[in-house]
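Hey all, sorry for the wall of text incoming. These are the two entities for the joint prediction.
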Amino acid sequence: MRGRGALSIRRILIANRGEIAVRIIRTAQALGLETVLAVSQADRDSLGARMADRALCIGPARPGESYLRVEAIVQAALGSGCDAIHPGYGFLAERADLARLCEQEGVIFIGPTAAQIEAVGDKLRARAEAIAADVPVVPGGPVESPAHAQALAQQIGAPLLIKAVGGGGGRGMKLVENLADLTAIMAMASAEAGAAFGDERVYLERYVAQGRHVEVQVLGDGQGNVIHLGERDCSVQRRYQKLIEETPAPYLPEAIRSAMHEAAVRFAARLDYRGAGTVEFLYDVAREQFYFLEMNARIQVEHPVTEMVTGIDLVAEQIAIANGAGLRRTQDDVRIDGAAIEIRVNAEDPARNFAPSPGTVSAVHWPAGAGIRVDTHIVDGAKIPPFYDSMVAKIIAHGPDRATALARLRAALRDTRIDGISTNIAFQADNLADPDFAHGGVDTGFLTRRAARATGD
Amino acid sequence: MSLTARDVEEIMKLLEASTFDRLSLELDGVKLELERGGSTAPRARREVAPAAPAPAATPAPTAAPAPAAAPASKPPSNREAGLVEITAPLLGIYYRAPKPGEAPFVEVGQRVDSETVIGIVEVMKLMNAVPAGVSGEVVEVLATNGELVEYGEVLMLVRPDAG
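and here's what came out:
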């Protein structure tokens, strides 16, 4: 049975590597679809390359010469008879030019449209879309003069941050705790920004002393219909890198939780969003308010916790939507069952300031048991090349409640052994054992405070 | 008019001698894109033991791909050299001839030098000329015209000049 509405995807090219390649192949195989994995020379013998029906070497190990080459990926799909491309996360997942080239060549891109990727990829544009969708954003804005800054600062309230327009990643920021100091600090910030970035422009933003990173999983059919699959709390971060994720977000007031879900749906619906996406929010604990941060137009690393509590295979839904099957579920069909927590296992050495630890895994033992899921590409003898991200696995535990999920996850970590490389597993076990984490609802300063305590501060 | 292998060679020499890195030529429906140094890594030039059976001639990419990546190693000149593989510098569609119906760039038995164009690899309509990278005699053509070749897939085997 062919034609509109019938399943038109038969063979998928997976333009990614590591655990997510394995993850996508598993669902594709369960759906009876053929898989072609694009690999770099360093990944020829990877688990994904062995599992896929076919592996195609697209270039040398360095991502710039393989996984990031849009033309090579599309050529590999066309040349191997694939009708669709799944980009995974990272690499080309949010590159509008891949989505656009797919559109031009008649290959189905399993993800949003190129225009949607562009709309959410530009921070200012995304913020404007959020405001238009009546989604709260962090109060603030650009300032033109000291007088204008004073007026804006009154609206925002103290404390606030002065940020350099040309800065980023935490650089070029100054904290104003008392609005009386605003003019002096702004003059200094502006001069410093000019010297550091060649751009004196600054903007003001509300400072959230105690914030939590909470994000909402959405699915859109591309026609304006959007549902959400609950939220994830990803506040345990080290240098903006997520390390532990869970759902539901503990101790989030129910009114906030619902408002956040609805805001995420409004934002995605405004874009006629197609596929799986995540709307990220900063939750201001003291003010009990949340603000839009950004939208991630892809499947996310931490998607398994959502799958565990909803029973919905997000990759299967991505493929269904790409096939034009729509959402297949109403909001009322989505039920949250219990709680799930995930830790990321990184090949890095906490004792050496988390330096990457590439190498060969001589032996590995992954945990199993009730509620335990492991997403990984690491098997005995697996090589971890130095060219890519250090994440090698995700261990996820599900339970009827958070305490059970946490106990299962802690037991699972004790049962995990990876020989031949350094990993952060012991570090993660310590994080899970922290009384604050066990209680639940920690903010993004959690790991910084733990590190300060460890050094006897 | 059409481009012959010799023409392409001449054009490549001109590019080599020029100060340009990239040349795009379109005439008579033929589009030729040449890049010096290239955005791709230098092609690995590997020695093949003469006794070793060559990989299957059919492009069966599901089968084990080319041997493990060996960094480019020049055959030692003081002992008898084995056959040298000419590998695909990038993934794409391989063409033996400049145009359908025309004579291939090179035939078995033909002599090549390192600049000789032995084929084209097309990536999304961009034609990449593949130079032999070795001087010697073409012994076998392994890749199939018009088929997808992987990065590093062996296109031809060359018996290098003694020396």
